């Protein structure tokens, strides 16, 4: 690969060097042998003609040598048509990207051990060689917090349930097991996880380490379900920590961002498996304010979906089925088809307006076969940064939710999920919202300010702005950390979808989103003591902005204690990547 790129650069240098002396045609191997001189006409001598013919033959030879020296694999024959544009990737080069498609790296070191013994050997060998092996899970973090081109270790093959204590409702698992795998495996014991994030594909080690959360003002983030962990560390080998065994390190490492050790095994406190009733209805901010305290205190799970440029707020509550009343006997007013009708009509209208031709692909689904989130992606793809177009899509979404009001019954691991849509940029902040008995109402004030900012600055902000709540966490690196048991926290996520694979358009959306995020940061974060979710924080490129972020993090989190633990457990920083190093620079680096 390197040789082919070097050859390519040499050829380009050759062409550039002779550009001032020769005119060449569009084809890469056809040259006009007439020199660019002040006196037009035929070459002055036969020797000059031979010289230029020689240059042409030399280029032909270089082209052929490059082509045959670096053959393409059989599955890439179509790339042979353009000689110098493509070069084959080495077979040992792994391309790893996050789910949102916003971060991608290529690495030659991507290790997947099948046992803790193999993992221990990998970590020890990497530490001896000072070779980075950043722990990476399912790659779902929007900011790619687990990625680095220097090398990664992934525990997808360490996905076993090791033990289940039915009486204590505890389960010990290998950290590579996915959430859905785990809940499926422990169903037969009548237990499940206390809470869930929007999706189920995270590895347990990853979802714990970044401080992920579900919703419910009485329920803490998911790291609080961890009662003990086994870490494989570069300097101290394998250590087991818990509330009883090295509690100081336990509460620091439980939400440790993969920087203190590779989480190999986790013991989780589970709860009884329950059927829940989900109630979805449309409200508005005025009515929400009247009922907010009641919604938080009386519902086990509650979230709001705010729709910019409308007064619509979708309220989703989930509660155990009443033992006395049973599930609600409620027939929805509208069918799914009727709920989608308004969105489908807007899509057909937009196809005509933007003159989007039917692709004619046999694999392209009919409009009637598209889900709501698929329709929204296709609508936004037509004009994602046109505010008026986005407003139409948001209003159609509000109408969809109005016609989707009703009840749904299912097990908690089925009900507590959310279709987030396609590729997207997201920034989610966490901030204190008072206590359950006395909410501060700062959470609704925050939303009001976000909505005002969107309208004032004409941000093409799509829906929804999702708002959730959790109880506090005792993990010191959690954004929801508090020493006060009654404290509650609100989590608010702003988004912009990336509904197209066109690189130019994705870049424009990215720039607009970063501006949107920057405005919320400047206006709201300090005032509300808001801090971004670890899996969604983006490292600033500007040095002054980075320094300001580092100082801000240091006020909220025990950065010195975290760095000291890194120094003891991972002195060579083999588990770190650019995000960790930038956010938590060591005193030596500073």
From TrEMBL:
Record-linked PROSITE patterns: FAD_PCMH
Keyword Nucleus attached: no
Superkingdom per UniProt: Eukaryota
Region (Disordered): 25-45
Record-annotated FAD-binding PCMH-type domain positions: 102-273
Pathway: Cofactor biosynthesis; L-ascorbate biosynthesis
Cofactors demanded by this protein: FAD
Keyword Metal-binding (UniProt): no
GO MF term set: D-arabinono-1,4-lactone oxidase activity; FAD binding; galactonolactone dehydrogenase activity
Keywords: Oxidoreductase
A Gene Ontology cellular-component term: membrane
PANTHER family cross-referenced by the UniProt entry: D-ARABINONO-1,4-LACTONE OXIDASE, L-GULONOLACTONE OXIDASE
NCBIfam families: GLDHase (TIGR01676)
Protein name per the record: FAD-binding PCMH-type domain-containing protein
